[in-house]
Amino acid sequence: MTKDEKIAYWRQQVERFRASGLSVKNYCAQEGIAVATLHYWRKRFADAVEPRPMFNGTEGFLPVTRKRLANPPLRAGLAKRLHWASFS
Q1: Which of 3, 12, 14, 37 has the largest count of CB atoms under 10 Å?
Q2: Measured between alpha carbons, how far is 6 from 17 in angstroms, rounded to an integer?
């Protein structure tokens, strides 16, 4: 089996699984294939699909706003110095 034939075979298996309505475990038992192998090919084909934008034209990024805390936490360096000072 060539590489292209192998890819075509597994693409067909993944499509048949999706159409079957069965769980991965039941489909694999019915077809005589390993669960891990079907998971591998499902992930491989899913990774090959180009990601879609999450929000109109933002291409996966959303605006973020920061709020100031009323009592901001101490910075790590200052907290360390205060901690060590309490042992003196």
Answers
A1: 14
A2: 16
63: amino acid identity, one letter: P
Alpha-carbon distance of 22 to 39, in angstroms, equals 14
Check if the beta carbon of residue 51 is closer than 8 Å to that of residue 20: no
Contact 30, 22 (CB under 8 A): yes
CA distances (Å), 65 to each of 60, 62, 68, in order? 16, 10, 10
Which candidate, 16, 4, 64, places its Cα nearest to that of 42?
Answer: 16
Per-residue confidence in pLDDT tens, the chain, 88 aa: 899 999 999 999 999 999 999 999 999 999 999 999 999 999 998 877 666 555 565 566 677 788 777 776 666 666 566 655 555 5
Strand positions, DSSP E, 1-88: none
